[in-house]
Amino acid sequence: AFIVAGSVGAISEVLSDLQRAAGATERLVELLESPSEITEISAPKPLRSDNVGLSFVDVSFSYPTRPDEQVLHNVSFKTEPGEMLALVGPSGAGKSTIFDLIERFYDPTAGHVEVNGTDITQLKLQDLRQTVGFVPQDPVLFAGTLRDNLVYANPHATDAEIAQALQLAYAEQFVADLASGLDTKVGEGGVGLSGGQRQRLAIARALLSKPAVLLLDEATSALDAESENHIRLSIDGLKGRMTILVIAHRLSTVRQADRILVLESGRVVGSGSHDQLLNSSALYARFAQMQFAA
Ligand code: ATP
User: Fold this and answer.
1) pTM greater than the 0.90 cutoff
2) What's the gap in Å between 72 CA and the centre of ligand 1?
3) Domain named ABC transporter: which ranges (predicted)?
């Protein structure tokens, strides 16, 4: 086959996008359907390794396919290094869009996003995506071994690194309990794993890239009690080691967060701890009552 030189880079870029998106089929479809909207800068800045967190500076955004519908309106927030921030708000408020912009699936229409003090459009896409770990709501495993699924973003991970990531994700025990351990065939035709087990593996997979920022889209569906408990313990263990943003659907997760950002119709309408927000925000109080009712 004949490939023009210029398109090789584009193809490998799309492939790395696809690899990144392999955990989330809906995002995969989104990526396949949308032409690549972002461009790489020719002389990117190095990514600072000191973790100074993440900022949104006056970010407004419309999806390219729907330019007349503004999805985010002047969103600004800043995390402290190692802070855990929970995003809450009704469906359609813009929570997933915030994650899309952090991963640079799209660029803001106005304003900018900074990771470790640098506008992310000034970074190499590969550096950015290495630094931002993403754990989708309902991770999909591809056909292959567990090990293949864990290391595709970081093929040089050592067994010791894999073991440590599994431990931090509270996935160590169930992997050890599988007859073939890391060599177990999963995905299509392989052993079936529960949603909670897949999400814990997705946490381990993200950790192997040693992310400075971890984006976690909490499952809306009920997980088995053990998985739910283990994901909670895992988040506790990760807190402080990296900046964590979680789209939270459970009161227990919101309670773990250092701070909660309340979104409504693409705007930040509140920020604070659960108790502070219960007192200061009627919207949050109502939302919490409905969303988190036991
Ligand atoms: P949910 O909790 O239901 O996932 P959310 O708070 O994450 O909601 P978003 O998914 O960010 O909300 O959606 C915000 C708005 O952007 C919605 O109006 C949605 O219809 C729109 N939207 C999301 N993805 C796209 C897309 N790929 N193209 C066009 N519009 C989109």
Assistant:
1) no
2) 10
3) 54-290
71 lines ligand 1 (CB under 6 A): yes
* 91 ligand 1 Cβ < 6 A: yes
Q: Kindly state the average pLDDT of the residues 91-114.
A: 96
Helix (H) / strand (E) containing 114: strand 110-115
- C-alpha 25/C-alpha 200 separation (Å) is 18
CB burial of 150-188 (b: ≥16 within 10 Å; e: otherwise) equals bbbbbeebeeebbebbbebbbbbebbeeeeeebebbbbe
Q: Given the CA of residue 87, which atom of ligand 1 is nearest to it?
A: 6
pLDDT at position 5: 40
CA 249 to chain centroid? 15
Question: What is the H or E stretch that residue 102 is in?
Answer: helix 95-102
Q: Which residue is closest in CA terms to ligand 1's atom 29? A: 63
* Backbone angle region of 118, left / alpha / beta, with phi > 0 → left and psi within -120 to 50 → alpha: beta
The C-alpha angle 118, 122, 127, rounded to 5 degrees, equals 85
**pLDDT of residue 3 exceeding 50:** no
